[in-house]
Specification:
The complex is a heterodimer of chains A (536) and B (193).
Chain A: E1 3-7, H1 8-18, E2 21-26, H2 33-40, H3 43-47, H4 58-70, E3 74-80, H5 81-97, E4 103-109, H6 123-129, E5 133-134, H7 139-156, E6 160-165, H8 166-169, E7 171-176, H9 199-211, H10 213-222, E8 227-229, E9 236-241, H11 244-250, E10 261-264, E11 266-267, H12 271-280, E12 283-287, H13 293-299, E13 308-309, H14 324-330, H15 357-369, E14 377-378, H16 403-413, E15 419-424, H17 425-441, E16 446-451, H18 470-477, E17 484-487, H19 494-506, E18 511-515, H20 520-535
Parallel strand pairs in A: 2-3, 3-4, 4-6, 5-6, 9-10, 9-12, 12-13, 14-15, 15-16, 16-18, 17-18
Antiparallel strand pairs in A: 1-7, 5-11, 8-10
Helix pairs in contact in A: 1-2, 1-7, 4-5, 11-14, 15-19, 16-17, 17-18
Chain B: E1 2-10, H1 15-28, E2 32-36, E3 47-55, E4 69-74, H2 77-82, E5 87-96, H3 109-117, E6 122-125, H4 127-134, H5 140-148, H6 156-167, H7 172-192
Parallel strand pairs in B: 1-4, 4-5, 5-6
Antiparallel strand pairs in B: 1-3, 2-3
Helix pairs in contact in B: 1-6, 4-5, 4-7, 5-7, 6-7
């Protein structure tokens, strides 16, 4: 059997292709980005002409995937955990419309916030939507679940969530591929009103969703991904969710745990297995990556009051990702810590790259804003968020995609003049345009800097959906063309940029300044690719 | 056999090229492998680390436990110290001596190297200089891999094969450069262990 060395995210991409998927829809977001990138570069995806271009945001991605499902084909939407907040309206309602072709939502959570604003646990969204959630414990399961998830979605008639976390997303291991399944034929839903959520229809469909819950419970208890692994020592029973299972096994020689273990990789929580564990064991320890979803559930579940240990009672840390050492301590095992980190070791946070255009924009902004004092720059999600840190310390907010323009407007409404928004080109396309419309409609006195590096850079330089369209979008939304100003952010243009900022801050209305220079990482990649092609 | 390796460096220094060669060598030997990487924000000049585990037995965790790493292989000296709690009592630390200074509070380099020198088992190597001598400073990561190779339970020839496979598409000259870098690193380590 040929093993392929794949990242968890790549295993999902391959699994989806081999599972007969006809389209992937996504917006880049760490740690989910490489699923779509893998599919974009895959020869079979090209041969089958699987849809694999980026969407403008997670909501458009999910809705488009739902449209493909409506037409009978298998589709996947991919996003990071906070992306699901953007797509939540479509996602929650899609559990009521149900699917036609199989639909998988792959969502990658980021506990410990390696590259995120929070560490929300997407399993709660799955529970909220009342659909099956798959949570692989390793790369092979990630492949298998992506491949088989479409069939589970078609069998149950609802979307299926595939939930991973950073560690599995970005860890590589051997994966064995299975047969490639055919794509579905185009096929309309048998009920032409299935997707029409008028109240009368929605009420009927919602009852249908509730009626499916018993089936989903049974599927969890019989799922090959969930296992009851017996052990001799019944003083403790252990519940492991997803990759927590590996951290448990790491603590035992030859991976044999003496306690009974329930491995959960498919939700809803397998109730029969839980009841058996409760009947067999004196105490239960819950190991889960993310929020204490299972732990909370069990605390209210068992009549005899079995003590439940986990993140809520302090047995494990309440926040952050798990690791084998946390699990060792929870099991009462000694952890040998090597040599302490010498005190001279300094933190090394990420920083803007040398030569980055955002730097030139911030230098010019800082010079002008010094006259007004700090505290009036609202920003957004992207590389330029690093402008909050020294040496720039320019920006004062980073909340969610698009919030720069709207928060600047709110502050201006409150009387903070001048108020400035800093947003990237891709974030503007993702969620900035509607906020700009609000600002234009009230002629808000704000200055918006769309720092345009012509790519989605923080996630690795993907194509930005607003490429070449930013001025026309702004003008179309109604910004006065005299106050849409473009400049190349380079040191030699510093004085001109300063003058431009000063003029637009003085203008009482919506102005847009677009410092535009290609991301230097993307530019150097492009040049390398050109020279490589020239050499062959 | 089992080799648990912490690969350390700064985003952009290309530690994953080292992991790729090791991964290829392990795959060719039909060994089990797990390799947890750092992607995302830290790749912008932040501290990055990869946990690389190779074994002839199935591997459970993607992450290495504290105090159990056989080797810390760092392409930057201060970064080599950041992961000392992972090093086992018998483990080796192999680091490039060239600092990557992109923060204002980078400590005195002599002090950093003095901390490295306190360890019972280490190799500190000017991989940039050695890479220049064999042809190109960009091969310094393969010098580092060579310097660490005595402490990794894989045959040296398998690492050479790994380089041939990984760099094949970049042409014969690049393959030879990286092989020379690997051998020069190995030779330095053997003299300075």
């Amino acid at each position: 059997m040929q093993k392929n060395l794949l990242l968890g995210v790549e295993a999902i991409g391959q699994g989806a292709i081999d599972g007969g998927m006809s389209g992937v829809y996504a917006y880049p977001g760490t740690p989910s980005t490489e699923i779509t990138e893998y599919i974009q570069e895959n020869p079979l995806a090209e041969e089958r002409n699987i849809h694999r271009k980026w969407s403008a945001n997670e909501k458009t991605a999910y809705e488009t995937a739902l449209g493909m499902s409506y037409a009978g084909k298998r589709a996947m939407a991919c996003m990071k955990h906070v992306g699901l907040n953007v797509a939540a309206d479509a996602f929650i309602n899609s559990s009521i419309t149900g699917v036609n072709g199989g639909l998988i939502l792959t969502v990658a959570d980021d506990p410990s916030m390696h590259s995120s604003q929070n560490e929300q646990d997407s399993r709660f969204y799955g529970q909220f939507a009342m659909i099956p959630v798959l949570e692989p414990s390793n790369q092979q399961e990630a492949y298998d679940m992506a491949r088989e998830g479409f069939a589970l979605s078609e069998e149950t008639g609802v979307p299926v969530m595939l939930r991973i976390t950073t560690r599995l997303a970005h860890s590589r291991s051997g994966v064995v591929r299975k047969d490639v399944l055919p794509e579905n034929e185009l096929l309309l839903p048998t009920d032409p009103l299935q997707f029409v959520l008028l109240p009368g229809i929605a009420r009927r469909r919602y009852k249908g969703l509730l009626g499916k819950q018993q089936l989903l419970n049974e599927l969890s208890d019989s799922s090959k991904y969930n296992q009851y692994i017996d052990g001799k020592e019944k003083s403790l029973g252990i519940v492991c969710c997803g990759i927590a299972y590996n951290y448990l096994l790491e603590n035992y020689k030859d991976s044999v745990c003496p306690y009974p273990v329930v491995k959960i990789s498919q939700y809803p929580i397998p109730e029969k297995m839980m009841k058996k564990l409760d009947a067999d064991c004196d105490e239960i320890l819950v190991l889960e990556e993310g929020y204490p979803l299972v732990e909370e559930h069990l605390k209210g579940f068992f009549a005899k009051g079995t003590p439940i240990k986990g993140r809520l009672d302090g047995t494990l840390p309440r926040d952050g990702e798990l690791n084998p050492d946390h699990v060792a301590k929870a099991l009462g095992r000694e952890v040998y810590e090597g040599i302490p980190v010498p005190s001279i070791v300094a933190n090394r946070p990420p920083a803007l790259c040398q030569g980055c255009g955002h730097m030139d924009a911030y230098n010019a902004m800082n010079e002008v804003l010094a006259e007004f004092g700090r505290g009036r720059v609202f920003s957004d999600i992207g590389c330029y968020t690093l402008g909050a840190l020294p040496p720039f310390e320019t920006i004062n907010s980073c909340v969610d995609m698009g919030a720069s323009i709207t928060m600047a407007k709110g502050a201006a409404d409150a009387g903070l003049i001048p108020a400035v928004a800093v947003i990237g080109d891709s974030t503007f396309a993702h969620s900035g345009i509607t906020g700009l419309l609000d600002a234009v409609n009230e002629n808000a006195n704000i200055t918006i800097v769309i720092s345009d590096n012509e790519s989605v850079s923080m996630t690795g330089g993907q194509d930005s959906s607003a490429y070449g369209k930013i001025e026309s979008i702004c003008a179309g939304v109604g910004v006065d063309p005299d106050h849409i100003r473009v400049i190349v952010p380079l040191k030699k243009n510093h004085e001109e940029m300063v003058k431009m900022f000063r003029e637009e801050l003085a203008y009482e209305g919506v102005s847009v300044i677009i410092p535009r220079r290609e991301c230097i990482q993307r530019a150097s990649r492009r040049k390398r690719n050109i020279s490589r092609q020239a050499n062959h | 056999m089992k080799s648990d390796i912490i690969l350390a460096g700064v985003g952009g220094q290309g530690i994953l090229s080292i992991a790729a060669v090791l991964g290829m060598a392990a795959l060719k030997e039909n060994l089990h492998l797990k390799q947890a990487e750092t992607h995302g924000m830290s790749q912008r000049g932040g501290a990055v680390v990869s946990h690389l585990r190779i074994s002839d037995q199935p591997i459970a965790s993607d992450l290495i436990q504290l105090g159990t790493a056989d080797l810390i292989l760092s392409v930057e000296p201060m970064e080599s110290l950041r992961y000392l709690p992972f090093l086992s009592a018998k483990g080796y630390l192999v680091t490039n001596t060239n600092p990557f200074i992109n923060i204002p509070n980078y400590p005195d380099v002599e002090q950093v190297l003095a901390e490295v020198g306190k360890l019972p088992r280490f190799v500190a190597i000017d991989a940039d200089q050695i890479a220049k001598e064999v042809g190109n400073v960009r091969a310094s990561n393969m010098v580092m891999l060579g310097a660490a190779s005595p402490f990794i339970d894989l045959e040296f020839s398998k690492l050479e094969d790994g380089i041939r496979t990984i760099f094949e598409r970049k042409g014969e000259a690049i393959v030879e450069l990286n092989l020379a870098a690997l051998r020069a690193g190995r030779s330095f380590a053997e003299k300075n262990m």
